[in-house]
């Protein structure tokens, strides 16, 4: 594969570059799309390419074609947008992160006040395991143009250092403590450099390579309910209000129980369950 007809497209940053089908192919394959389906999607996208088209529009076309060819792969390919759809506030994202860590075996609490050495802090998510406790600051952004920069990393690190100092003064500290910055978009290069140097845990989009946010979600099959095509905003609100943040939460309930718990009609619930079961096939 190569650059397509030298069509110049516009990136989110405003910069222009030639459309490179190899990038789209790698992006599709990385989410589990089979090679034949990836080639078919790219061929269809290339038919609609126009000079000056934004990358957002191009990837929207790719998702639309992929959902028609292979709906489960199309849903997985929409993961980033599905996380944005958890907004507009950051609280649903915090609840989602808590559920993600519960699936990893942690007990979690959301929105807790914790005494530091100097001041009291509100901690977004506390995840407690047998030998480790992680306190997390969650930074939610509704579009990919907002990165978490080094100022945010330093601010988060200073808060958790204050808490760590308070914990160190207690006689019993059975678990290893760490603080973490968790965000649904990328970190700037300086934020990554600071986190790496200071020892601050950071979980972001595409970072770290082996434990990035999307990798944690994909490895656990812990996709947000916003990824389901039939989940309208009203449906999402009814699901999340009951703490049903992930497709696995839907899978665990029978149709009648889910309908009774959320107030959704059986037909809607059956459609949701069909889609949620297919995404992790």
Explain this structure:
- The chain is globular.
- The protein has 3 domains: 3-77, no CATH class; 84-220, Trna Endonuclease, Chain: A, domain 1 (3-Layer(aba) Sandwich), CATH 3.40.1350.10; 223-279, DNA polymerase, domain 1.
- The longest helix has 19 residues, at 150-168.
- The protein is built from 13 helices and 7 strands.
- The two termini are 29 Å apart.
- With 281 residues, it is an alpha/beta fold.
- It has helices spanning 21-30, 35-48, 55-69, 71-77, 79-84, 91-102, 150-168, 189-198, 213-220, 233-241, 247-251, 255-262, 266-279, and strands spanning 3-10, 16-20, 107-115, 120-128, 132-139, 176-183, 201-203.
The strand order across the widest sheet is: 3-4-5-6-7
Round the Cα radius of gyration to an integer and report it: 21 Å
Q: What is the CATH architecture annotation of the largest domain?
A: 3-Layer(aba) Sandwich
Unreliable stretches covering 5 or more consecutive residues: none
CATH class of the largest domain: Alpha Beta
What is the overall shape? Answer: globular
Q: What is the strand content?
A: 15-25%
Name the helix and strand elements from N-terminus to C-terminus, one letter apiece: EEHHHHHHEEEHEHEHHHHH
Overall tally of domains: 3
Q: What percent of residues adopt helix (DSSP H or I)? A: 40-55%
Question: How far is the N terminus from the C terminus?
Answer: 29 Å
SSE class: alpha/beta
Tell how many strands the DSSP assignment holds.
Answer: 7
Query: Helix tally?
Result: 13
Largest sheet: 5 strands, mixed
CATH topology of the largest domain: Trna Endonuclease, Chain: A, domain 1
In round numbers, the mean pLDDT is 91
């Amino acid at each position: 594969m190569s650059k397509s007809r030298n069509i110049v497209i516009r990136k989110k940053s405003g910069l222009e570059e030639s459309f490179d089908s190899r990038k789209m192919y790698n992006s599709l394959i990385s989410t589990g799309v089979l090679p034949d389906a990836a080639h078919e999607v790219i061929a269809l996208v290339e038919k609609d390419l126009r000079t000056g088209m934004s990358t957002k529009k191009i990837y929207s076309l790719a998702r639309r074609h992929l959902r028609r060819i292979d709906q489960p792969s199309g849903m997985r390919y929409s993961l980033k947008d599905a996380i944005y759809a958890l907004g507009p506030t950051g609280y649903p994202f915090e609840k989602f992160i808590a559920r993600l860590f519960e699936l990893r075996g942690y007990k979690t609490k959301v929105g807790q006040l914790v005494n530091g050495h100097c001041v009291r802090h509100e901690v977004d998510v506390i995840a407690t395991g047998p030998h480790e406790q992680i306190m997390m600051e969650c930074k939610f952004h509704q579009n990919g143009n907002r990165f978490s920069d080094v100022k945010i990393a330093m601010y988060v690190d200073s808060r958790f250092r204050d808490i760590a100092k308070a914990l160190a003064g207690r006689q019993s500290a059975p678990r290893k403590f760490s603080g973490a910055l968790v965000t649904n978009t990328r970190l700037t290069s300086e934020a990554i450099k600071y986190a790496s140097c200071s020892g601050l845990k950071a979980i972001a989009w595409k970072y770290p390579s082996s434990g990035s946010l999307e990798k944690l979600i994909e490895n656990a099959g812990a996709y947000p309910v916003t990824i389901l095509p039939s989940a309208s905003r009203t449906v999402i609100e009814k699901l999340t209000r009951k703490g049903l943040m992930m497709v696995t939460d839907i899978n665990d309930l029978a149709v009648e129980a889910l309908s009774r718990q959320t107030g959704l009609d059986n037909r809607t619930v059956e459609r949701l369950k069909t889609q949620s079961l297919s995404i992790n096939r």
